[in-house]
Amino acid sequence: AAIYDRQIRLWGLDAQQRIGGATILVANIRALSNEVCKNLVLAGIASITVLDHNVVTELDLGGQFLLCEDDIGKNRAEAVSRDIQLLNPRVEVIVDKEDISEKPDSFFESFSVVCLVHSDYQTMLRIDQLRRKVKKPFYAADVFGWFGYIFCDLVDHAYIQEKKTGDSTEKIPHTEEYVSLEASLSKDWSSMSLKTLKKRVSPMAFVIHTLLMFQRDQGHFPSEEEVDIIIEKKDVYIEKMGISDSDLLKTSLLREVCSLYRTEISPIAAIVGGILAQDILRTLSANDLPIKNWLYYNALDGKQFKQFN
After folding, report:
1. Which of the 8 DSSP states describes residue 167?
2. Maximum CA extent, the chain
3. Does the keyword Nucleus apply (predicted)?
4. Cα angle at 207 between 204 and 209, to 5 degrees?
5. Where are any strands of DSSP class E within 3-91?
6. What are 153's strand-pairing partners?
């Protein structure tokens, strides 16, 4: 208990014990994954499984602080496991070198939390559906240059919210229902006025949802050349969302996000990774309400925007 004394004082012994018993899967090792793994391991979870079948390349060294030049050619998961273990020897670090697409459904059922980073839409959809069947938390996240997003599906999440009344603090239990990734991307925005949409919904929401819909339909993330195709057909994507004003899908923002798709900027990964890891810990601790369902980050205006579905 003394090791995590500050955390116990922050969110309580019961919450720390829940965190201390958690088993977490982080799939696809990127700069964002490095940050998430670091923060979760330092918080004292029981075990972390890092899954990636790819090998380290020179491009990985720019954003991933858990890698060094000697790791080039090694499996990514195996390479980062060394320094992850050094961060907290008390946490079990498990390396899995298999392709996530070849994993059986049963593999994803037992983890306390599953977190996918830089994953394709079909994999996100498949694993979210599997996690919903066993009623366990699922996260998906990514960063593209200056931008990032987090998706969270906790199915039915029970949590405690503290309310201060005078000198006393009342603990009030709540239950929040989440929607699936598929339902979230199929959301019809037509019930909201254009004025409300512009005021309450981040422009990043329409960009990210459009890109994921393109990936769903085409089987891959759009290249810079294909951005022009999306822009030509942006009225079609906007109509699928139930929006009448195509200007809500910002062409310049869409183009910039796509152009930076494979770019990892360490400070952006650190910010989004810190938010993501903290939210996973919030979910495990059952203190306060986690993200529901989306968070979008745009470093160019310094804003993070939570979108509630």
Report:
1. T
2. 61
3. yes
4. 105
5. 23-27, 47-51
6. 138
The structure tokens 């890891």 sit at 277
For the chain, residues classed under CATH 3.40.50.720 are 2-159+264-307
Report how far residue 151's alpha carbon sits from residue 290's, in angstroms, rounded to the nearest whole number.
11
Closest CA to 304 of 263, 284, 276: 276
Are 157 and 290 in contact by the 8 Å Cβ rule? The answer is yes
Contact by Cβ (8 Å): 178, 138: no
Beta carbons within 8 Å of 132's beta carbon, 6+ residues apart: 138, 153, 155, 180
Mean per-residue pLDDT for 161-174? Answer: 82
> pLDDT digit string (tens) for 185-220?
888 888 888 888 888 888 888 889 888 888 888 888
Cis peptide before 293 (omega within 30 of 0): yes
CA distance 176 to 154: 9
Angle between helix 224-232 and 251-259 (nearest 10): 160
Under 8 Å between Cβ of 136 and 114: yes
Nearest by Cα to 51 from 27, 16, 20: 27
Structure token digits, residue 8: 């116990």
Residue 32 makes CB contacts below 8 A (sequence gap 6+) with 117, 118, 141, 142, 143, 148, 264, 269, 272, 273, 276
Both structure tokens of 57: 């390349």
Q: Is the pTM of this model over 0.90?
A: yes
Please state, in angstroms and rounded to a whole number, the distance separating the CA atoms of residues 223 and 215: 11
DSSP state of 208: H
Domain 2-159+264-307 CATH assignment equals 3.40.50.720: yes
Our separate counts of H helices and E strands in the chain read 12, 10
Whole-angstrom distance, CA of residue 58 vs CA of residue 264: 13
Q: What integer pLDDT is reported at residue 238 of this predicted model?
A: 82
Confidence category of residue 309, pLDDT binned at 50, 70, 90:
low
